[in-house]
Hints:
By secondary structure, the protein is of the alpha+beta class. The chain has helices spanning about 1-20, 25-35, 40-55, 65-85, 90-95, 100-155, 225-230, 255-265, 315-320, 630-645, and strands spanning about 160, 165-170, 180, 240, 270-275, 285-290, 300-305, 310-315, 330-335, 340-350, 355-360, 370-380, 380-385, 390, 435, 440-450, 460-470, 475-490, 495-500, 510-515, 520-530, 550-560, 565-570, 585-595, 600-605, 610-620, 625-630, 650, 665. A hairpin with a 6-residue loop joins strand 5 (about 270-275) and strand 6. The longest helix is centred in the N-terminal third of the chain and has 55 residues, at about 100-155. It is elongated and about 175 Å long. Mean pLDDT is about 80; it is low at about 90-100 and about 655-665.
Amino acid sequence: xxxxxxxxxxxxxxxxxxxxxxxxxxxxxxxxxxxxxxxxxxxxxxxxxxxxxxxxxxxxxxxxxxxxxxxxxxxxxxxxxxxxxxxxxxxxxxxxxxxxxxxxxxxxxxxxxxxxxxxxxxxxxxxxxxxxxxxxxxxxxxxxxxxxxxxxxxxxxxxxxxxxxxxxxxxxxxxxxxxxxxxxxxxxxxxxxxxxxxxxxxxxxxxxxxxxxxxxxxxxxxxxxxxxxxxxxxxxxxxxxxxxxxxxxxxxxxxxxxxxxxxxxxxxxxxxxxxxxxxxxxxxxxxxxxxxxxxxxxxxxxxxxxxxxxxxxxxxxxxxxxxxxxxxxxxxxxxxxxxxxxxxxxxxxxxxxxxxxxxxxxxxxxxxxxxxxxxxxxxxxxxxxxxxxxxxxxxxxxxxxxxxxxxxxxxxxxxxxxxxxxxxxxxxxxxxxxxxxxxxxxxxxxxxxxxxxxxxxxxxxxxxxxxxxxxxxxxxxxxxxxxxxxxxxxxxxxxxxxxxxxxxxxxxxxxxxxxxxxxxxxxxxxxxxxxxxxxxxxxxxxxxxxxxxxxxxxxxxxxxxxxxxxxxxxxxxxxxxxxxxxxxxxxxxxxxxxxxxxxxxxxxxxxxxxxxxxxxxxxxxxxxxxxxxxxxxxxxxxxxxxxxxxxxxxxxxxxxxxxxxxxxxxx
Length: 667
């Protein structure tokens, strides 16, 4: 600091000497002007020295600045001595006895230039040094902040988003970080918000087709890599927003219904269920109110078939809730369905307390809403619901006709019917036919059975057991093989068919029978179906070929001598048990398919369930389909009849394909 002050003082002395110079004024003036240019570098050096001393204290490194200032002060002192020599006439002659004035002047000017450069370099190097130090400090500060942020993030709780299922921290929860669907999936796994289909990869292979006689198929095999692909599969969301860790009722989302179902698993008591059904699509809007047994909290569940919303109100919330309600904001909840339905729950406040809850449900096809009032009161931290009172009736409004309506009488329409009379017993008076000189006989051990163990898909499978008896007293008999043929009663000729032998011997033929001995044979005879009449049904213990008339099957065996023995057996289908009307039936109708030997039935029976008006059954191809006819269904038929201005409806959608039967509903 003292050197800088000394430099300023020398510069000031030189300025004063320039004003009083008696000789060589130009050289003195140029030298003084040059020294004046040192004031800014000296001032900059002084400022840097003060700053370094302030930052680093007494241990500050000022050596570079002091060296520059020492050289600068020495040069300025030399300039002062030079000016004193050349500016006084009395001293000029003495100075001229030495070196030249011009050479000395040039030398001092060069030294001044060097001092100026040194001062500027010292300031510049210090500025660069300061910038480097600032950058290091900023980097250290940034690193420290990052470490502190990471440490705080580690301490921050991980949350799971209810929209997308992703783990996140609240400090990193930015707008657009959550990608989700603002709806649930319908019955076809399609998101209703964006119509995208949820179709994960198949986990198992498709089952192989199975035919009779093949070994049963094993469990389906898992496709390699399918499980990992299924876990990684997702449908990109159509909405973007922030993650949310708490379930809510702002809009339906994929995990919303699971949350509602989990909440409703707690033991609870239902106070009232307010429900109204859309009479065209059958969907309902429903509002349910009740209390939980353990906590005593009030709950409200509202929604439709696919989406339910859920609200819970403890007793403490109900006591302070009236302070936040206004005459225009008394709704506890409000939901809408896609088909125009609306469900609401509204608080009733009297003397600053909530004394009741009014719930309503209305579909688009109902002229009025279904509405209930449920009294509420709090007692020892629990909510208690009183007896609900019905305020309004929704749904279809029954109307009294202006005159009596005569229900049409039952009409019996004649047509072809399957015979139901008891068949005659099969013939057993067949005898053994012998061609040649064979002394043998065929005896029936077990008569013919049709499709006893398996259903016939392409042919009827007949089984029987016969015994070949050798009547010769002296010789054995050897049979080379057997054949089978059949004919239906009324036909003249036999038709060949396939026959196999299922006895325990590895090879049945050639079959040797000792004299006065016998051998038992188990027969399996396949009689093909008559494909001209269409695909035959698969029957147990009945024959499709013999559905109209008995069938006669003839088996024949040939021995080594060329002699043949044959025996006929007859099979008659047992009586067919067809469905008939029961005394308790409200309605019974049928039509017979004589070619297909099938009776198609429509039956309406009363129900013991209070919620079900009657049961509707439709039987086609041996399969019975049952439907429950509830009051809402009858109302929907009446609504359709009123809307279409007709008195009779034919509901074909309640019958299976091809049944050609329908139920007439009169309104």
